[in-house]
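Look over this today:
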Amino acid sequence: MEIILASNNQHKVREFGRIFTGVTVKSPRDAGITFECEESGTTFLENAVLKAESLFRLCRKPVISDDSGLCVPALNGEPGVYSARYGSDELKRELTDEEKYLYLLQKLEGTDNRKAFFVCCMVLYLDDYRFYVVQETVNGEIADTSKGEGGFGYDPVFLIPEWNKTVAELDDAKKDLISHRGKAGRRMLSLLKSERILDK
């Protein structure tokens, strides 16, 4: 089975490829499609559906999308659905991953409550009247400083307390085991098999 991922982020393409065993996951670019979608929703679900619908209209093939983000209760849930563009409005430019998590650390200075969680809302879009939604989370804390060279986004500052490591310090197998995207992906893969969309 071939699925086109509603993202141009190559980190995500590789991650989905690892999680969706037995499925060929392609980026829009790999499928010869020019894809851009404004994430105008106010929830992870709205954005995930928006991206899936937009790509499906272009390719008319099975599409999978996700909208993911980091939520920090001490910051009233920031950055949330704005995780990918966090700080851009304030600093009037697009920030790098490092600049975004440094901006987050700055906003948390002097805050004892470092609890945080990642959210992943995943949508598998098969046609205009048939789609599936899975949403998962992973709990952790925001570290005082960045650690690790792996992963992407906020991984260097997202600490898994029971392992005392940031996600960026984990190898791919461990990250996929505990991550919000790994958990959502496995549930979606199980659903594909149970519904015989993907052969068991």
Summary: The chain has one domain: 2-194. The chain is about 30% helix and 25% strand.
